[in-house]
Amino acid sequence: MDHVDHILIVDDDREIRELVADYLRKNGLRVDVAADGRQMRAFLAANTVDLVVLDLMMPGDDGLTLTRELRAGKHRAVPILMLTARADETDRVIGLEMGADDYLTKPFAARELLARIKAVLRRTRMLPPNLQVSEAGQRLKFGKWRLDTTERHLLAPDDTVVALSGAEYRLLRVFVDHPQRVLNRDQLLSLTQGRESDIFDRSIDLLVSRLRQRLDDDAREPKYIKTIRSEGYVFSMAVEIAEARP
Amino acid sequence: MSAAVGAAGAAGARLRWPRTLGSRLFLILLAGLAVAHALSFSVLFLERYMAAKAVMLDTLERDIATSVAILDRLPAKERPEWIAPLDRGTYGYVLGPGTPGTPQLSERANEIAAKIRAAIGGRYTVTVETIPGAQEHLQAHLRLGDGSALTVDIKPAMRPLTRWLPYVLVIQLVLLVLCSWFAVRLAIRPLVRLAQAADTLDLSKDAPRLQESGPAEVAYAATAFNAMRDRITHYLQERVQILAAISHDLQTPITRMKLRAEVADESPERGKLLQDLTEIERLVREGITYAKSAHGDAEKPARVDLASFLESLVFDYQDTGNPVTLRNGAAVTLQTRTHALRRILTNLIDNALKFGAAAEVEAEADAQALTIRVLDRGPGIPEEHLEAVMQPFFRLEQSRNRGTGGTGLGLAIAQQLAQAIGATLALSNRAGGGLQAQLRIPLH
Are B305 and A13 a contacting pair at CB < 8 A? Predict the structure, then answer.
């Protein structure tokens, strides 16, 4: 029997909670709800879930406090999707630094939430064991580069920011999350399609060549992303967690 | 010393008053001091003159009596030897009838004549005459006891001014100028500083405050200025807080409405409702962004590679099917607030896409600045509105609906953020049609 993903929604607004729960249930997920930190703790004491959707702005313990608490306890590996009220860069950064895996700005569409939940689940399931604990807010180091997963850009050795487009970041993220593993084009495509807003997704080959350019990687003799003929690509550089953001 | 007075006098009533307060104060101070100085100098000079004259006349009276008595008692052939020792510089003695002159006497000559008569008039008959010439010249004629003529030759003159006196005067003048200049500077400088502070008012917390030191009035003005700055900061914060509070309170009902609409059955009304909700949502979001951009974000500047920055931005558009092209990038790294710069450029590109259907981005750098241009081939903007479109909520077509008009904040946000990162944003119409938005970022 297939595993049914179990989601816990923590939001102080009853109607939003119920509407979201209904929608997600309709789409084949198992959903429970909690109105605040107290209910969340009570529920998680007796259950395990696959993902927590957490509202940032709540009376009592807010989303940041609860995220920190989750990351410190036995549920430290559970993916967290944060709902923020403001489309503010700093809020996003804070949320991700605190250990959320992704965020969604209110008001959001239920379809978008579903897509994000699936993307986060897919991504975290395929993580290698050394990166199992959410590494958001940290910097990943490979070769001469560091990848800032909060700001979604590369940092050169001299701290110069090398920006990445959304698609480039997602592809690099997939590679970095699966180092030394051969990934075929279909796998790469399905793993990079996190958000459904990207209707015109580029072909993987084009994205790989752009990414090599960003990484100063020589296409004929690549050090980072190697082409495996008739199979796909492999990220051949070792990935480690660098220092947390200052 | 009298140069300033002279200049002021020469130009007369229609004299153009200098423009700066500094030069006005300087002029007033200098003129006043110079006149006062000139007055006191003249008084001193007059006093000296009168004192000297009194001394001279007294001496003349006593001396002339003695000298004439000596000459009268000497034998006629010994007299010439005594002429030289008796010469006093301003007056001397000539044996003989002297030069003929006119009996008309000036006021001073009369005084001298009176003194001479008082000294020797009792014993001799004295006639005093003026000898015509450039300099005042008097001669007193008399006959000695033996009948020979004697002339007292007088050239009344003040003792000449000491040679160092002009230097002292020049030094005094220089001192006057320096002191006036210093005083004016002292008075003007705080004012200039205050104006500059108001001009470059940066409300971010780490901007230096005006120094609250110096003379009492200056310190008071600085304190008042800083207090005003704090009040402005407070109002701005309040504005942002109000907007944030409103938007937060709006977001929950909007979220509910959106979710409700989504679970509802498919119908034309549902689609329209969702569209309206998206509009409201955007307005709320832009409103907050505008309020925040007004007083600079707390974002820290970072060094960024411009080529990858522009490419990733353009690729993001291309990947979502928007016709945005990068014509040429500039291979520079610059220190800037990346979120703000990204926001400026996306607003400009969104604008270009909305009105021109396609957008081109190009960048070039010289030694001073980096110029990024966003170009379209849309209808452009009438020249007279090029400035006004950067005002919040300004719309070219008042009738235009939100569907194409946006929130009316995009360019205003871009402009404020440009200011916040020290850049300038200028719009212009392109030759051949279309709009060019040019962002110029100084490279330090």
Answer: no
